[in-house]
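It would be a great kindness if you could assist me with a short task in structural biology. A protein sequence and the structure tokens that stand for its backbone fold form the material at issue. I should value your view on which stretches of the chain appear to form regular backbone elements. The record follows directly beneath this note.
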Amino acid sequence: SYRSGRICDYEKVMIEDAIQEKGIEFLASDLIDVKVRLTEQGMKIFHSTSRLRPVMKSYTPDGDGFLCNFHCTENQLRSYFFRFGADAEVVSPAYLRDHFKTQFRKAFSVYDNNPTD
């Protein structure tokens, strides 16, 4: 089918499945397993914000919030959860947890070092 420019039924199903799982914006990216702890407010934000939302595979109550498991792309995780602030904590993988920590520290330093009053 690659020579004709047409896709076969099997390829069509594969593409449709990938779009369903990753979303069209992240189709070319690899999926990773991610754990995110959401506060109750974070869970409310998650359910009310559908743009770029990753699919939650499972969750368990965890203290005052929920430990949620996602199978999504790294870019999707970064794009979606950064706006949650303290209502979402990336638990794993460690390199993404460190990325969020670094980015939030940089943002804090902007506000901490440049008072406007």
The CA atoms of residues 16 and 24 lie 10 Å apart. The first strand starts at residue 31 and ends at 39. The mean pLDDT is 86. Residues 94-113 form the longest helix (20 residues).
